[in-house]
Amino acid sequence: MTISEYIVNFLKNYEGIEIDTNHMTDGSDKYGLFKSPSRDTKEFNDGTYQITEYYQFLARQSGVSKSERKEADAWLEELTYWIDDYPYNYGYPSIDNKREVTGLSITGSPYPMETGDKESLYQIMLSITYMREREGI
Known about the structure:
The protein is an alpha+beta fold. The chain has 2 helices and 5 strands. The chain has helices spanning 3-12, 66-89, and strands at 20-21, 30-43, 48-62, 99-115, 119-133. A 5-stranded mixed beta sheet has the order 1-2-3-5-4, with helices on one face.
């Protein structure tokens, strides 16, 4: 499983949303996850290392009326709180290939990137931190 797939599966736990990776179809209530070109690593003496990767989560929501825009803002805020609270209420699911997630967090507040007559496109910056055990060490 890729890290992108892991994040998509993780986010599906929030209201069963369907998310595309590196793609987003037209229309309202569509979601996409895009990997950023940043990656941080920290090496440890035991052969493991910590990796932090960054992603953009995009949400296209209906934004025709003022009430729909308010609902979209509230939904994104609740999603942010859900991600913040997740490790305190549950535990992060494991990944395969000797990888274990230690954190998934919001690194930037939800904000509208683009607004139109019928829809608004929102972006949330995410980071995921996980430990990886090196092969053969």
